[in-house]
# Entry
Amino acid sequence: MFSSKRPASPTPSYDSSDEVKGATSRGTFDEGPDTALPDLTSTSGSLVYECRPQSHSHDSGSKWKFSTLNARYSLQSSGETIYKTETAREHFAPKFTLIQRIKPYASADEFETIVTIHHKIIGSSVFEFANGDKIPSNVLMRKEKASSFKSYGFFGRDRIITLPDRREARWSLGSKTCLLVLNNDTRTPLATFHRNKATLLTKQKMPDLLEFFPTALSVNGSPSSGYEQGVLSDAEKRVVEFIFVTWLYVEKLRRDRDGEDGAGEGGDGDGGGE
# Structure
């Protein structure tokens, strides 16, 4: 649990001299994990996470509304929570975000930190991985002007990432959401975020959805068999996890840009302007 004044756990230390020189733009996601990844099952064409706010994430006086950086992410197919995010703030600006994953074969609410994002107002924020590697955001995902309005270039620069299977993909920051496509002429969609609102019929907001299309899991050019069998391979899980971690960051950049959730009060420098 975090408050706006003092995090419940010690603040992760960060020294720019610790940044990994020549680090890969994939971080540690192209390496085998130290522990087994949780099962990710899918029975309906796409892998979908439901995104819900953490009940303890915000102080009653906080100006922040629901943020994707203080949330739990559960598989729509089973309801099992796979990830959760918690963000410590300082003077209403995010200081660091913990991205945590459920421990395999552990209790229902036992998580381990896989990435810590150290937010910086000036300069690039830093991703600290569980093995100690520290990679600046402008290395993990480079900025590039969109080639056309079709790729949402009107709303700012795209972010280019290299997936663990070495495919290059492009995060486009749209007006209301982010879309990940292959960074080639096909612009094949890989993942997107669906924002839901309460309606007169539901009277209650449905959970937001983070959707991974089957094309996201064509690891090394081979079609995914995970959807047919209902279980993803470790290589496919690492692709999903890398997309998830980078989405959290670009979605925050988009919200900072648009002044949503009070996030614009203390955005990431990300190495310069949009």
